[in-house]
Structure formats: C-alpha cells, structure tokens
Amino acid sequence: MRPLLCLCLTALLTLQSQQLMAVEPPVEFGLADFPPYFYVDEQGEPAGAVRTLADALFAEAGLSYHLRDYPPARLYNRLKSGDTQITMAAKDHPEFSAFALQGKLPLLSLKLNVYRHVEAPPIRNLRDLAGHSVILIGAYTYGALSQALQDPQLGVTLTRAATHQSALQMLLHRRAEYLINYSDPMTLPMRTVPQGQIVVEPLSRIEVYLFVSKATAQAEALRDQLDDALLRLRESGELRRILDAAQYAN
C-alpha cells in the first residue's frame, strides 16, 4: 500500500510541477511618461488612465503582465531587443514600426483642443496662434507641439497653469487668449464654466496603437490576442467607461 501511495504522491507532485512550468511568465508593457494618460505618481507607482486600461486589457486577454516606466531611449532599445514585449505609440510610429508589429485597432484616440474666450478669434491651425498668448498645463510636456509653440518666429507668449481648473479661470479672467489641453481631462472642469463663455475647437487628434516587439516569441499571435481583447472591451462599452471614469493628474 505504501509503495502505491508514494507512487501516487510522486505523480501528483510531478504534474503540479509541470503545470507551474507551463504557466507563461508575465509580459512586460513598457511606457514612457505621457501625462495625463500615463505617469509615475508621488509613490513612484505607474498611474493614469492607461494603467487602468492595461489592467482590463491584459485580464481580458488572459495574460499576466507588469507595467514599467522607461526613458524614451531605453524603451526603444528594450522593445527592439524584446526585453520589453509591448508598448504603445502613435499610429505608424516611424521607429517602432521597423522592429515591432502595430496593433490593428487604436487603443486610444486622443483629442487636443484649443479653448478660447468667446470673443477671441477662432483657431484653425497652429499658425493662427502666432502673436497670441497661450496657457498650457504645467505638468504636461505636449511633445512636439510644445517645441513648436516656443519657436521665436511664431511669437507665442506661453503661460503655465498648475491645474485644469486654474487654467480655465485664467482664461475666463483674460490672463491669456487661448488654452491648449487634452479633451479627456477637461470634461469635468468644463462643466463648471458658465454656458457660452468658452469655445472649444479641435487642434489635432492622435491615434495610439499597441506595438509588439518582433523579437517576442509568437509576436503576431500575441498582437492578435491583444487586438481581440481590445475589441471585446470596446464592444462591451468597458473601454469607454474606463476612460470616462479616469482620474487625471492636475
């Protein structure tokens, strides 16, 4: 009886060991700071709407993952080598596209708006801001747009606001003629503005996609697995609920 019991226990332990070995290691989702959608909070932890969205996406895909924040140059090298398996970037990213597979569906569609007092001239493009004063949110980098606005030939006077609410108050009190900000974090603050005083005009739109490193084993299958999960989140309305409920820094 004892030999049979020992044999059964050995078989059970072997099976459990094989099952543990079969568990896939977590994939790494690497990002560079992109406030207000992704940033590192005061405790040094990844935060923002993308963190919440990633939790839902990888759970829907049945994948364990960890989220890491890297400087842009290091993220580039890690994605190229496959040390980081997944990231996100603007559609047709010229560098990532060379060594990573782009997802088929946009993860995010980001709108950048111009907010102006009703009496200020309308803005159709960046050149229309020449010679005017513009408010930006102090914690945001705005990427290439910030550099363009600082071009001396454009002659834009820039003012930084600490929060979305203070930026709107500055605009209402004519501290500057225009405010540039992302649409999502402005949704709630705009509800406090008296109707008809602030006009909102679209400036640009950024479509953000997942990118899977080609150095990752079965990269195409992983990309498709995430795309399918993203589609289910979108069709169920969960994607929209996550973005609507997001708490944005500043």
UniProtKB/TrEMBL annotation:
Q: Which InterPro entries match?
A: Solute-binding_3/MltF_N
State the SUPFAM superfamilies in the record: Periplasmic binding protein-like II
Q: Name one Pfam family in it.
A: SBP_bac_3
Q: Which domain of life does the protein's organism represent? A: Bacteria
Keywords from the UniProt entry: Signal
SMART domains registered for this protein in UniProt? PBPb (SM00062)
Q: Where is the signal peptide?
A: 1-22
Residue ranges annotated for the Solute-binding protein family 3/N-terminal domain, each copy included: 26-250
> What's the family?
Belongs to the bacterial solute-binding protein 3 family.
Can you name this protein? Solute-binding protein family 3/N-terminal domain-containing protein
What species is given as this protein's source?
A: Pseudomonas neustonica
